[in-house]
Design a protein that fits this description.
The chain is an all-alpha fold. It is built from 2 helices and no strands.
Length: 95
């Protein structure tokens, strides 16, 4: 599959028109579907990035407090148990 870049729709479309004019279009279906799925994936990632950027300010100011409160609730209801282990490492210079 040719990579036409992020905004290569016009190039891809012109290439497909030329190839369909000279070949049968059925063998081109896998390439067409691959291109369409690639563009859909890019759009999905763009939407996800937009959503994350739009809530990043709120998360920076409220996210830590929100997680701290949820952690306290879980700890107070004993839904989680916190254990601390101290491991002492000794370095032995004689192997």
């Amino acid at each position: 599959m040719n990579t036409y870049g992020r905004f290569g729709w016009q190039v891809w479309q012109a290439d497909m028109k030329e190839r369909i004019a000279t070949e049968s279009w059925e063998p081109l279906l896998p390439e067409i579907f691959e291109f369409v799925h690639q563009k859909m994936e890019e759009m999905s990632l763009d939407v996800m990035n937009w959503q994350l950027s739009s809530i990043s300010g709120w998360l920076q100011t409220h996210g830590v407090a929100f997680e701290r409160e949820n952690f306290k609730k879980l700890r107070d209801t004993q839904m989680i148990e916190i254990t601390v282990r101290v491991v002492l490492l000794t370095l032995n210079p004689d192997p």
